[in-house]
Amino acid sequence: MMREFRRLLIGKPLHNRELAHEKLPKWKALSIFSSDALSSVAYGPEQIMLTLVAVPGIIAYGFMAPVALSILLLLGIVVLSYVQVAKANPGGGGAYAVAKKNLGEMPALVAAGSVFADYVLTAAVSVSAGTAAIVSALPDLAGHEVTLDVMVLFGLLMLVNLRGVRESSNAFVIPTYAFLFGVIALIATGVWKAFIGAPYLLPPESLARQQLDWAMLFVILRAFANGCSSMTGVEAIADSVPMFKQPEARNATVTTYWMAGILSFMFLGITYLVMHYHILPVAEVTAMSQLAEQIFDRSAAYYYIQFTTMLVLYLAANTAYNGLPMLLAIVARDGYLPRYLSTRGERLTFSNGIILLTLAAALLIIAFQGDTEHLISLYAIGVFISFTIAQASMVVHWYRQRGKGWQVRAFLNGLGAAVTGLVVLIITVTKFLYGAWVVLVFIPIMIYIFKAIRGHYNTMSEQLHLPEACYERGAATFPKGKHTVIVPVSSPTRVVYETIKYAKMIGDDILAVHVSDNDELAKKVIEKWKLWDPGVELVVIRSPYRLLMRPLLHFIEKRCREKGPNDYITVIIPEFETRKAWHRLLHNQTGWFLRNTLIWKENVIVTTVPYHLTK
Amino acid sequence: MMREFRRLLIGKPLHNRELAHEKLPKWKALSIFSSDALSSVAYGPEQIMLTLVAVPGIIAYGFMAPVALSILLLLGIVVLSYVQVAKANPGGGGAYAVAKKNLGEMPALVAAGSVFADYVLTAAVSVSAGTAAIVSALPDLAGHEVTLDVMVLFGLLMLVNLRGVRESSNAFVIPTYAFLFGVIALIATGVWKAFIGAPYLLPPESLARQQLDWAMLFVILRAFANGCSSMTGVEAIADSVPMFKQPEARNATVTTYWMAGILSFMFLGITYLVMHYHILPVAEVTAMSQLAEQIFDRSAAYYYIQFTTMLVLYLAANTAYNGLPMLLAIVARDGYLPRYLSTRGERLTFSNGIILLTLAAALLIIAFQGDTEHLISLYAIGVFISFTIAQASMVVHWYRQRGKGWQVRAFLNGLGAAVTGLVVLIITVTKFLYGAWVVLVFIPIMIYIFKAIRGHYNTMSEQLHLPEACYERGAATFPKGKHTVIVPVSSPTRVVYETIKYAKMIGDDILAVHVSDNDELAKKVIEKWKLWDPGVELVVIRSPYRLLMRPLLHFIEKRCREKGPNDYITVIIPEFETRKAWHRLLHNQTGWFLRNTLIWKENVIVTTVPYHLTK
Question: Chain A contacts of B492, Cβ < 8 Å?
C-alpha cells in the first residue's frame, strides 16, 4: 500500500546510470539560473519604498533613486568579481567549496552556515512573495496566505523535487521569459503613459528634499540593505559553470552579463515607476500589483503580470531546491552533517535534504505568518557573507596561482570582497534589531553543530577502525567464551516452547526465569514446569512490590557481574506477534522495555523469537 | 533521573501486604461516599432553572417545584431499592458485578459501558462545576476555565490518586462537612431573610401558570431529566458495603438514609431559594453564587460557600477516581479490557486506569470547553441505565433465593428498576439531540470493543495453550534443525568483529552479506575481507538502484524459502550504541527497519550485538 502510494507520488526508482546532465545553451541557462535574481524585482524596489515611507510624516521618494543606483553599482562590482569566480572554477562549486580550498575549515563552515540560511530564506521569501502576487490579484484569497505557501512548498516544490525533474525542462524556461516580457511591457507602457499623461503631483512638502540627519541616513542605509535582497541569486551562474555548453566558462560569463543587464534595467524601471506613480504601502496588495493596476487597469495584461510574477517567484524558490540539497550533500560527505544527507534517494535526488529544506522553509513562513516584509529582514545577510568569503577565497587563489594578469583578477575579487563585506556591516547595523540577529545567531549555532557532528564521526571511525595489523596478519581469531541463555517465562505455553527450541539451538546453558508477585501462582507454575519437563532449569524470583522488570534486571545484572570478558549472555524474550496491529495494545511491552534497558550491558544480547498468532 | 522524579511525584513502591482497608465509621463513610451525590446540589437545581428559563419569553418558575418534588420522589424509590442491593451484596460490587451474576454477559457489558461513561462524566462535570464555583467568586479567572480544569485533573486528581491516598484520610472528610455546614447556613439565612424581607416580585405574566401544552411538557420533562443529574452518586454507598464497620450492611443502610435525607433537604432548600430570589442565568456566574451573593453579599460567608463548593466538587470528581479504575480492573480481569488495567502499580493503585480516566475527562472538558451545562446533557443517562440493570438483577437475585420476605424485596427492586427505566426513556427522548446520543452511541461501541478484546484473548489463549498431553507425557522434546546465521556488513570494523564473534558462538553456518551500489567500493571490501580472513564467507549483492534494504530482504527471503520447517535463520545486525542520544540521529536505522520487516517471517530471528562507543 505505502509503496504503491509512494510510486504514484514520486515515481519508480531510477538506475545509477540515469544520473547525467544535459549541457545547457545560454538562453536556457539564463532563464534557469537567473529566476532567483530576476524575480527579486518583484519585491526589491518595494522593500526600498517601504523602508523609506515608514518614516513618520515623510514620504522620502527623494532618496529612492540614489539608493537604487548604489545597489546597481554594487551589482556591477559583484558581477565583475563573480565572472572571475566562474573562470577560476570550471568545475563549479559554491562559497563552501571555494573557501575550503583556499581559506580553510572555519571560513568554509561560516560560508556553509550562511548559504544554508540564505537558501532556506530564498525558498521562504520567494514562495511568500509569489503568493502575495496572486493574492493581490485575487483578494478573495487574502487571509489564506500561509496555507497557500505551505501547500506550494509541500505539494508542489517538495514533490516535484523528490521526483527529480531535469533542470533543462521547458517548464523552467517559459515562466522566466514570460515574466521578462511582462515586466518589460509594463515598464514600457508605464514610461510612455508617464510622458503623455498628466503628471502625478505630490504635496510640495513631501517632494522637498528631506533633512539629511543621522536618523535619516540610518533609514536610507536600511533601505539600501533591504534593496540588496534583489541581489541574491547573482552567484547562481558562477556556481553552475559545468552545466553550460562548451566553452563553459565563456558562456557562463556572457550569460552573467546578460543577467546583470536585464536585472539592472528592470530594477531601474520598476523603481522609476514606483516613484512616478507615488506607490504607497497597501495591506495585501504588492507594489507591483498597484503599478500594474495603475498602468493596465484590471485588464488581461494586469492578470498576466501577476500570474507570471507568481510563477517566476515559485520558480525562484525552486533554485533553493537545486542548491541546498546539493550543498548539504557536499557538507555531509565531509562529515559535518549526518551522512544520509549525502545519499541519493530512489529517484537519484537528495531526498533528505529536500525534505529538510521544505520543513525549514515552512517553519519560517509559519513563524512569520507568510509576511514577505518580515522575512526580507532576515534575508540578504547570509548571501552577502558568502559573497565576501567566496571572493576573499579567490584573492588567495589568484595569489597562489600568480598566472598571467593575476593582479587584475585579484584586485577585482578583492574589491568585490571589500564592498560586499561593507554591505554585511551595513546590513548588520541597520537591520540587526529588525531580524538580522536571527541569522547572526543561527550561523554560529550551525558551525557548532557542524563541528560536533564531525567530531562524533571522527571519534566513531577511530573506535570502529580495525588496526592495520589485522589485515597484515590475516586469519582473524575469535576467543572462545561461555554462552548462557536466559528465557523469562510466565508459564508453559507454545511461545515458551518455541523460544526454548531456539534457545537449545544457540546454546547449551539455558535458564528459564519466572518472576512472581503471587506465591500461589508461582507454586502452580513450578508444578506445571515439572510436569512438562522441557529439560531446562526454572528459577523463580519473588516480587512483593509487583514489579516484573526490576527483579529480572537484577537477576541478569548479577549474572553479568559473574561472567568472564568473553562470555555472552543472550536473553530471549518469548513474544507473540499479533495478527492485527491494535491487538498489540492489549499486551504489555516487556520485550521492548527489556531490550532498551539491557542494550547498555556489555556482551548481553536481547532477542525475541516472535511467535505468530494466526487468528 | 526519571526514577527520582517519579519518586518525588508519586512516592516509593509499596509492598503487597500494605494493601489493606481501614473500616470506616458511619460519619466518615457518609462524607467520603456521598460527596458526589451531595455536591450535585451545586448544579442540579440550577440545571432545572436553566432548562425552564430557556423557553423564549417565559420564566417558568411555576414548574420548578413539581419538577423538584418528582426528583425527590424518584430519589426515595431508588434509595429504598438500593438499600436492598446493599443488604444482598455484603461484598460490594457495582452494577457490572451484580448483572454478571444474575443477568449474564450482555446486560453486564451494557452496565460496564454505562458506568464507564458515567464515571468519566462525573469527573468532567464535577471538575468543571467546581471551577465554575471559584470563577464566580473570582471573576479575574474567567476565560481560563479549561486550563484550570485540566490543571486540577492532571496536577491534583491524577497525581494524588497515583500516589494512592487512603480513603479514610481526613482530607476527604472535612470538605464535605464544611460544605454541608455552608449550604445549611445559606438555606437557613435565605429562608429567614425571605420571611422578614420585602417579597421579591415577578411581573404578573411570568407568575401566571403557563399554558401546559405538549411543547411545555417536553421542556418540563427535560428539566426533570437534567435535574436527575443530582442523583448520580447515590449508588456509591451500596457499592462499598465492605468498607463499613460491623454490622456492615446495617451501617451502610443507615448511612444511605442519612445521605438521602440531607440531599433532599439541601435540594429542596436550594430550589426554593432559586425560585424565591428569582435567580436567572448569568454568564460565568453560577446560580449558587448568585444566591450566596444575594443572601450574604460579598462577605466572608459568600467566599466560604464558593470555596467549600469548589472543594466538595473536586472531591466528587475524586469518587470517579475511586470507582472507575476499580471497575476497569474487574472488567479487565474478565478479559474484556487490556490486562494491564487490572495490575496494581508501584503504589498499589490501578495506575493505568487512573491515567485513562484523566485523559478521557480532560478530552471531554476540552471538547465542551469546560461548559458544565453542555456536559450535563450527556450526564445521568449512563447512571440511570446502570441503576436499571442493577435493580433488575436484584429482582432475579431475590427470585432465585426466595428467602424470607423475598416478595417485598423483589417488589422494591422491581419498582426501582421500572422507575429508573422510565427515567432512561425520558432522558433519551428529551435530551437526545442535546447530547444524550453521544452516550447512546458510546455504549454500543464500548460493548463492541469489550467483545473484540475478549475474543482476541480467547483465541490467543487457545493458540498459546499447550495441549494437556504435554503435561501427561512429560519430558518435552524439541526437534533438531539447521541454523544459519546471516551478518549484513558494510566493511570490516570492530562492530563486525564483535558480531562475528557472537555469531560463531551461536552457530556454525555463518554468511556475511554486503550490499553495494558502487562496484569499485565493493571490490575494495572484498579485498579487505580476504586480507582480514575471519573464516566467514562474504556474499556481495549489487544494488544499482541504491537501495540497501530490499536486496538484503530478497536474499534473506530466498534463504527462507529454501529452509526446512525446523531450521532457523538468525540475522545479526552489527550496530553500535552511541554514547549520547542525539548521536543516534547521525546514523541510519537499518537495524530497526530490518527487525520490523523480518519479524513477520516464520523462524527468522533478528538480533543485534550492540557495540558500545565509549567516546
Answer: 466, 470
ipTM of predicted complex: 0.70
On whether the CB atoms of residues A98 and A89 are closer than 8 A, the answer is: yes
| Cross-chain CB nearest to B602 (options A340, A606, A612) | A612
Contacts of B512 in chain A (CB under 8 A): none
**What residues in B contact A545, CB-CB < 8 Å?**
13-16, 346
What's the number of domains chain A is made of?
2
Residues A180 and A269 in one domain: yes
B546 and B422 inside one domain: no
- Please state, in angstroms and rounded to a whole number, the distance separating the CA atoms of residues A170 and A32: 9
pLDDT digits (tens, 9 = 90+) for A558-579: 888 888 888 899 998 887 777 7
Q: At what angle do helices A26-33 and A248-276 cross, to 10 degrees?
A: 50
User: Could you tell me if A492 and A448 lie in one domain?
Assistant: no
Query: For residue B15, which residues of chain A lie inside 8 Å, CB to CB?
Result: 544-545
Dihedral class, residue A370 (left if φ above 0, else alpha if ψ from -120 to 50, else beta) = left
Residues 6+ apart with CB under 8 A from B577: A599, A600, B610, B611, B612, B613
In this structure, the answer to whether residues B187 and B107 fall within a common structural domain is yes
> Do A346 and B545 make contact, defined as CB atoms within 8 angstroms?
yes
Q: Which residues of chain B have pLDDT under 50?
A: 207-208
Which residue, among B516, B605, B609, would best test binding to A if mutated, counting the most A CBs under 10 Å from its CB?
B605
The answer to whether the Cβ–Cβ distance between B610 and A587 falls below 8 Å is: no
Q: Are residues A191 and A76 part of one domain?
A: yes
What would the pLDDT profile of A451-506 be if each residue is shown by its tens digit? 999 988 888 888 888 888 788 877 778 888 889 999 988 888 888 888 899 999 88
Closest approach of chain B CAs to the CA of A291, in angstroms? 46
A489 and A369 both lie in a single domain: no
Query: In this structure, what CATH number is given to the domain that contains residue A447?
Result: 1.20.1740.10
- Assigned domain for A441 exists: yes
Rounded Cα distance, B447 and B451, in Å: 6
Rounded Cα distance, B490 and A71, in Å: 53
**A483: nearest CB among B475, B505, B609:** B505
Distance between CA atoms of B229 and A157, rounded to whole angstroms?
56
State the Cα–Cα distance between residues B172 and B319, nearest whole angstrom.
10
Cell numbers 523552467 correspond to what residue? A172
Burial A66-99 (b: 16+ CB within 10 A, else e): ebbebbbebbebbbbbbbbbbbbbeebbbbbbbb
Sort out which chain A residues have CB atoms less than 8 A from B615's CB and list them: 459-460, 462-463
pTM: 0.68
Q: How far is B158 from chain A (nearest CA, A)?
A: 21
Full residue range of the structural domain in which residue A294 is found: 23-452
